[in-house]
# Entry
Amino acid sequence: MDVLNESAANEAAYRQLLADLYQARGQARLGGSEAARAKHMARGKMLVRERIEALLDPGSPFLELAELAGEGLYPGVGPGAGLVTGVGLIAGRACMVIANDPTVKGGTYFGMTCRKHVRAQRFAWQHRLPCVTLVDSGGAFLPDQANIFPDEGLFGSIFHNQVGMSADGIAQIAVVMGACTAGGAYIPALCDEVVIVRGQGFMYLGGPQLVQAATGEQTDAESLGGAQMHSRISGVTDHLAENDAHAIAITRKLVRELPPMPPPRILRGVSRPPARPPTDVYALINADPKKPTDTSAILECLLDAGEISEFKAEFGDTLIAGFARIHGYQVGILANKGVLFTESALKATHFIDLCCKRDVPLLFLADVAGFMVGREAEQQGIAKAGAKFITAMSAARVPKFTLITGGSYGAGYLAMCGRAYQPNAMFMWPNGRAAIMGPEQAATTLALVKKQNKLAAMESWSAQEEEAFKAPIRQQYESFASARNFARHLWVDGILDPAETRETLALLLDLAARLPRQDTRFGVFRM
# Structure
């Protein structure tokens, strides 16, 4: 196949990936069923995304996090797990918005809903963003209690994070726009200020039926936990609104009274367009994942003027390291260009140290099969060099962002700032893949073990039998490694179209530029 035909085939395959992505996004943005949405609107209530749009400033970007979380994990629940989370501008101030979608199983919390809420809070805490929570939820989805109740990072962590952020001076504002029951009533109760909608918002630890069952007392929802009662008698809420629109207007006013956003500590330069259109990425990434991608060409599509000031360009050349700009913001780039050798790991360690000393954010562009293996690599100290790389990356206290642009496997995934190292944000492109090893390597490794066992038992194993053994393993690893699987399990913050990557990174870098500097203290570098 000639170059032009191959590029056209690559682009066609990539656009199919994008079509699938946008279809899933569309499903997430619909929320619940048509009947559930109609019932919700018949009550005079705005849909969750209408609420968010009215809350944000006109024209504000909305950096949505975990849009596809939970996709396919719960029967009758679309992508998003019944919660919308993201960053946008309210009265000129960047805020984290966390909003229940009551058209999805009454806005109840599944295990993934809890994890998504907690992830949004941790992002907000890390970037010191006020949290505005639009509450309209029936509380926990009881059949999923094992994934909701007992562990760290689940429902209880929502309360813990609210308390911690409030103590750190990060505003917590709740808007009770519907049901708010059982333990969920503590979400607004733990906020700094609470707005509630008359005749629509209800807060109680136990609803009328539960109260009657537990105490024999007969009461109605309004006197038990209605907006007027809480605003005039209990004092649990602070502001009484007449409808969704009024509640949103009050909330915007509350945000307007908060201290202003801190000014950028890191100055932004002049933004210049990339050397190549970001959509060129579609043709650059081969439809066959076994064929490598030209990393330098990818950088030309992402960086201002396509320029990078490379560090140690002639040394450890399977890793590109250097300083560049994205929409005027300076970043330290670490981008794979092959397997990681001792030299490339040492280069990465040196470069990360420079970025920490110069207070430059790090951007990891991961497309790596892992670290080199074999006798020669081990004798050259690949484990020691890799440990240096991981030590530097893990200890670095500059903002860190990770984008998986291709395959990211094994210890290479870890070294390129995988999820375990808590980057400020982590995304994948639709073609992105990540796993403990590649599908073919996994199938071959397990087949070798099986073959050795067969030989030890003096049993025959034909080539056809071996292939039949390997095929489902390949399929299992391919399914696990896919970007959609990582997004549904919240192992990444989302999947980005390459065309929207520069703008997303610019928003993230703007948030990071307003954080106080943190000094880095490295662990021991084994010599």
Q: What stands out?
A: Residues 3-30 form the longest helix (28 residues). Residues 29 and 381 are 50 Å apart (CA to CA). The radius of gyration is 25 Å.
